[in-house]
Amino acid sequence: MPAGTTLQAMESPHSVQRSWDMSRGAPVPGSPKRLVIKTLSSKDPIEMAELPDGMTVGELKALIAQRMSVPPRKALLLRWYGSIIEDEHTLMHYHIPDGAALEMQMTGRTSAEVDELKAQLKQLRIKNTDGKVGIIEGLKLSTKVVDIKKTIAERKLFKPEEGFLAVDPKNPVCELVYSAVFTGSFGITLDDEKTLGSYGMLDDDVLLFKPPVDQEFLDKQAAAEKAAKEKAKGK
Fold this sequence. Notes:
Organism: Prymnesium polylepis
InterPro entries: Ubiquitin-like_dom, Ubiquitin-like_domsf
Distance between the termini: 100 Å
Region (Disordered): 1-33
Structural class: alpha+beta
Largest sheet: 5 strands, mixed
Domain Ubiquitin-like: 33-111
Number of strands: 10
Strand order of the largest sheet: 2-1-5-3-4
Pfam family, one: ubiquitin
CATH class of the largest domain: Alpha Beta
CATH architecture of the largest domain: Roll
Helix content: 25-40%
């Protein structure tokens, strides 16, 4: 070792290089505001914008799960240059630059993880037929389906779409559909008097909301279309 050279001075360049290797580049200031999420099954990447400062990987996963209606029985893995990034760390910890692309993979949870999510049930995601998502919190395994419907109506979670009626809190006539592996409109239509626990729901599960149909509107629309066709034939 040359005279006057300390061990710290010799190790410093290597330590910095290891840090840069992990981040796939020189450290970048601040936390990314926009990221692109790529999946193997989807041709179109998903853009996540307006991300807050100090966001953790776990918080980003939760945001992606809500955006993509990922059921809680599936766990998300995010990779940055092939390496899995851990939930407890911030995006800034990995020196991920603004606009970077992360790779996402979905895996099945273990039975122990599923049982834990059942016991932790506190909120559900409600998705309407237009793709909008609302969250209902403060739930329990003993909460009845009809209470979910009343909450949707009282909070006016969704504006009535054309051809549908608003839900009356006193008589919440609507449908809630549940599938353990969320597949859009397919699943079990829930019974008002049954509890969430009786369906084996997990914390942050997804329900599809189907509002009551405005039959009068649909009849008028059908009559107008019929009249237009008859008029076109008469020309």
